[in-house]
Amino acid sequence: MTARRRALLSASARARLLAAAAVGVLALPGPVAAQAPNPFPVPIDSARPPPAQSKKPPAPKAPAPKAAAKPTPAAPKKAAPATPAPAAEAPDDPNVDLAYGAYQKGQYRTAFNLALKRAQDKGDPKSMTLLGELYANSLGIKRDDAKAADWYKQAADRGDREAMFALGMMRIAGRGGPQNREEGARLLASSAKLGKAAAAYNLGLLYLEGQTFPQDIKRAAELFRQAANAGNPEAQYALATFYKEGRGVEKNLVEAATLMRAAALADNPDAEVEYAIALFNGTGVTKDTTTAVALLNRAARQGSPIAQNRLARIYIDGLGGTPVDKINGFRWHLVAKTAGASDPDLDAQLAQLPAEDRKKAEDLAKKWFGAR
């Protein structure tokens, strides 16, 4: 499990967390007065789940063993597990590079032996962190959270930011020892000060959540900015929502769109939906409905029920000059509904669709699920 993957909340958890913090909804302008009133039960461009879908936000998740990782339809594809690359070593330090090279090749037992020797002989923190990774994720050796935490602590005490981050997440979740959210937060803060973007992002979530600390939106925004500037797409997405609503920062639609674009380019599906919405409306960016629909299609095929629902609306009603395609639109409605994005208005319209067309839409939906 990579440090990045281990650290971040799932897309749905982030959305619930932001929703619970009352982060605003991107709003697509409704039809002009001469047109029929907007029938959408939820704004078509809202990437946040409807209030009925919101739940109490979970705390940031701690490291999970590799065997327990289960990709969800809404999550972007992740790279193969890789521990953070060790810092450049002096010429007389070959074992660290050899251990990491073995890790990258999947030769975990070899990596363990090399890292253990280096840690014991030289007290090398990077080797200690690698040992923590191997124990925590059951790679080449039986999983042992207590030993993982011990190696992480030894490396953290020697100033390794990756170990601080990993140990902080374990403390928050109570892995490898008693749960201690305060200590975990301190470790995240130390890691963030040393430039670990994921630590800054998760620390920001704690301030946004308001359980470990009193809720502080401005501080959360500062931490998200730190992580966003370092290229963390989840932080870019979170900070963009702040700029959209002026929470913790001065409202700035251009900055919001810029951050959404950066996160979307990093394959963050939530950001793809939001940036598509901004393009569709011309909010903070030049209007481009063609690219917007393409991005929604991409996010929909990645499993985003919000994108699927928005595509359904666009195709069924021919929004933004998109050619009407009711069969394809109702296909996406059925797919989104199965994933929990209900839309009673589209249900009513589907019931009025000719039986032959309704069957075509249902068959397309079944085919889509079969293809997955």
Description:
It is a single chain. By secondary structure, the protein is mostly helical. Among the domains are: 91-194, Tetratricopeptide repeat domain (Serine Threonine Protein Phosphatase 5, Tetratricopeptide repeat), CATH 1.25.40; 288-372, no CATH class. Helix content is 60%, strand content 0%. The protein has 18 helices and no strands. It has helices at residues 3-7, 11-20, 94-104, 108-122, 125-136, 145-157, 161-173, 181-193, 197-209, 217-229, 233-245, 253-265, 269-281, 289-301, 305-317, 326-338, 344-352, 355-371. The chain is elongated. The two termini are 23 Å apart. Mean pLDDT is 79; it is low at 1-92.
Named CATH topology of the domain at 91-194? Serine Threonine Protein Phosphatase 5, Tetratricopeptide repeat
Strand-residue proportion: under 5%
Distance between the termini: 23 Å
Please report the first level of CATH classification, the CATH class of the domain at 91-194: Mainly Alpha
Number of strands: 0
Series of secondary-structure elements, N-terminal to C-terminal: HHHHHHHHHHHHHHHHHH
Shape: elongated
Provide a count of the helices.
18
Uncertain runs are 1-92
**Name of the CATH superfamily of the domain at 91-194:** Tetratricopeptide repeat domain
Radius of gyration: 23 Å
Q: Name the structural class.
A: mainly alpha
